Automatic annotation (TrEMBL):
A GO MF label: molecular adaptor activity
Transmembrane segments: 91-117, 129-147
GO cellular component: caveola; focal adhesion; Golgi membrane; sarcolemma
Annotated compartments: Cell membrane; Golgi apparatus membrane; Membrane, Caveola
Name by which UniProt lists this protein: Caveolin
Source taxonomy: Eukaryota, Metazoa, Chordata, Craniata, Vertebrata
PROSITE patterns: CAVEOLIN
Pfam families (UniProt xref): Caveolin
Membrane disposition: Peripheral membrane protein
InterPro entries on file: Caveolin (IPR001612), Caveolin_CS (IPR018361)
Function in brief: May act as a scaffolding protein within caveolar membranes. Interacts directly with G-protein alpha subunits and can functionally regulate their activity.
Chain segments carrying region Disordered: 1-43
Family affiliation: Belongs to the caveolin family.
Keywords: Cell membrane, Golgi apparatus, Membrane, Transmembrane, Transmembrane helix
Length: 172
C-alpha cells in the first residue's frame, strides 16, 4: 500500500514535470522576443524560500490515511490551483508593480546621479573650507554638549525586579 502511494506520487510528479517541460520555450513559437531567454527565471535564487510543494503543506501520518485517489486528486488540485492562482494574480499585478518599481528606481537613480553625487563631490573637492567650518562647529558646540550629557547620564543604573505582592495588589 505504501509502495503504491509512493509510486503514484512519483508518477504524478513526473506528469507535472512533463507538462511544465512541454510548456517551456518552443523554437517555433510565435511569441517573438517577449519571452525571457533563460529557462531559469530565478538564477540568483532570490526566492528560494517560495518553493512550496504539496508535501510541505499537506502530510498524512501513517496512523491515518485517506483513499489513494483522494490523495492523488488533492495533490493535483493543489498544484493546479497554486499554478493558476499565481498566473492570474501575476497577470493582474505584475505589469503595474513592474511599472511602479521601474519609475521608482529611475527617480532614485536620477536623484543620486544628478543631485546627491555632485553635491558630495562639490563638498569634498571644491569646498574644503566647508569641511573645516563644519568640523569646528562640531568640536566647539556639539561635541562638548554630548560629552557632558553622556557623563551626566553615564551613572544611571536601572534594576528591574519582579515583585509578586505588588502585582497582586495592582491587579484589581
Amino acid at each position: 500500500m505504501e509502495k503504491q502511494r509512493l509510486k503514484d506520487k512519483t508518477s504524478a510528479r513526473e506528469v507535472m514535470e512533463v507538462k511544465v517541460d512541454t510548456q517551456s520555450e518552443d523554437p517555433d513559437s510565435t511569441h517573438g522576443d517577449t519571452r525571457p531567454r533563460s529557462h531559469d527565471r530565478d538564477p540568483r535564487r532570490i526566492n528560494k524560500s517560495l518553493k512550496v510543494m504539496f508535501e510541505d503543506v499537506i502530510a498524512e501520518p501513517s496512523s491515518v490515511r485517506s483513499f489513494d485517489k483522494v490523495w492523488l486528486w488533492s495533490h493535483a488540485l493543489f498544484e493546479v490551483s497554486r499554478l493558476w492562482c499565481y498566473r492570474v494574480v501575476s497577470l493582474l499585478l505584475a505589469v503595474p508593480a513592474s511599472l511602479a518599481a521601474g519609475v521608482l528606481f529611475a527617480v532614485l537613480s536620477c536623484i543620486h546621479i544628478w543631485i546627491i553625487m555632485p553635491c558630495v563631490q562639490l563638498l569634498l573637492i571644491k569646498m574644503r573650507w566647508v569641511q573645516t567650518v563644519w568640523g569646528s562647529i562640531l568640536n566647539i558646540l556639539i561635541s562638548p554638549f554630548f560629552a557632558s550629557t553622556g557623563k551626566c547620564c553615564g551613572r544611571i543604573n536601572i534594576h528591574l525586579a519582579k515583585d509578586k505582592e505588588t502585582r497582586k495588589n495592582t491587579c484589581v
